[in-house]
Amino acid sequence: MGEEKSYQDYLQELFNSGDLFDKPEPLKGVRILEVCYVVLGPAACDYLAEFGAEVIKFEGQRGEQMRFVTPFAYFWKNLSPGLLEQNHNKYWVGMHLGHPQAKELFLDLVKRSDVVVDNLTPGRMKEWGLSYEELSIINPRIIQLHVSGYGSWGPWTGRTSYDAVAQSMGALSPITGFDGRGPIKSGVWIADWITALMCANAIVAALNYRERTGEGQFIDYSQVENVIRFLDWTWLYTSKTGEDRPRSGNRDLAVCPSDLFDCADGWVALAAFSRDEFEGLCKAMNAPELFAKYPEPADRLEDEPARQVLQAVGRWTTTKKVSEIEDLACQHGFAASRVLQVKDVYHGEHFRTRASVQTYEDALYGEMTEPCYPPRLSETPGRLRWASRPIGMDNEYVLTKILGLAAERVAELAQNGVIFKWNPQVPSHCPPPEWDGKRGVKYP
């Protein structure tokens, strides 16, 4: 008999990425109508689309703003990198809901759908006759989520918000940065992405409630409130002490040592919080006196002891290579890892093995390699099926296959400007330059 399979081997086989497309999707059968732009709303729908929800995205003639948001003015095959990451697995319809005939088409889709998501200016859907009050009359089971910077009511409702503004208004920027210097915003759109994740979570919760009761509901989500929620211990500390949380750079004010340290050949992230972890670090440093002075976590958390510990660790790391510190961490039981560059993560064997980074064949753009959302479901995994698409690419598919309209009627709607496709004069609206007019068309 062969050796018994290890638990890690069992799990790797259970989550085998080669079986990804042979397994069912957990949200298959859930239809979502997306009336969203930029990152906040589209990313919420993207989370759900990667787990099988059928997302139909409505886009105006000028196009989703993210078609023009791109780093260093970089475009690839007419595709903006800014558009891609929050717009997978969706069907794209060119249609402005303020048009009376477009509104009627949308309402017909609402009757056949489960969720409507918008991140427009609060009250805009109401102006078009598409508020939750009106949608719930024609489909009492409908779930509608509206997400905006400040929510649908309150003194700040209607103010424009972007990620940088939300980080600032939610008090994230003021606590980010180095002591004695100005506030810093995160290098990514963290307020957008985390709010989108929680919007998706709220939709799943509402779907579960509807499954049990048959009742839909309205969800109002504030981007800034979400930033406030993820500032961990800040609020209890401030409410009890009356003090603002200070900026502390890479130093963790609640765990010591936990920081980024300069080494002889690079940078390392290092943490050793518990008594055993810190003792292991002090052994690696050959500094038993440091452990004797500060053995318990609480001994190291006041400002002066913390600075002494961090300075001692910092002096030690400069004498070592990153790989040496990683080896010592494994040997002595504290945490340490090199600070990886984007390319290191992208090409990393660990993340490819876990299918955190997936390669798929897109009908329009060819081979694509991108990160997939992290939850690993053994029987119903998420997956990337296709990338973003040009404006109106799926008009015919949605209107014929879902609404049952005749092809002649769809052509008439296009002729009358009720529905539309990309503007050939705007490259970022369009398919790749080499497109043959057939690849990726889902109907006919």
Tally of contiguous helical segments:
18
Taken in chain order, the helices and strands follow as HEHEHEHEHHEHHEHHEEHHHHEHHEEHH
Class by SSE composition: alpha/beta
How far apart the termini lie comes to 55 Å
Name the shape in a single word: globular
Uncertain spans, ≥5 residues at pLDDT below 50? none
Mean pLDDT: 94
Report the portion of residues in β strands.
5-15%
Portion of residues in helices?
25-40%
The named CATH superfamily of the largest domain: Crotonobetainyl-coa:carnitine coa-transferase, domain 1
In CATH terms, what is the fold-level topology of the largest domain?
A: Rossmann fold
- Major sheet: size, sense and barrel closure? 6 strands, parallel
CATH class of the largest domain: Alpha Beta
Q: Would you identify the CATH architecture of the largest domain?
A: 3-Layer(aba) Sandwich
Any key phrases for this structure?
444 residues; alpha/beta; Rossmann fold; formyl-coa transferase, domain 3; 2 domains; 6-stranded parallel beta sheet; 3-stranded antiparallel beta sheet
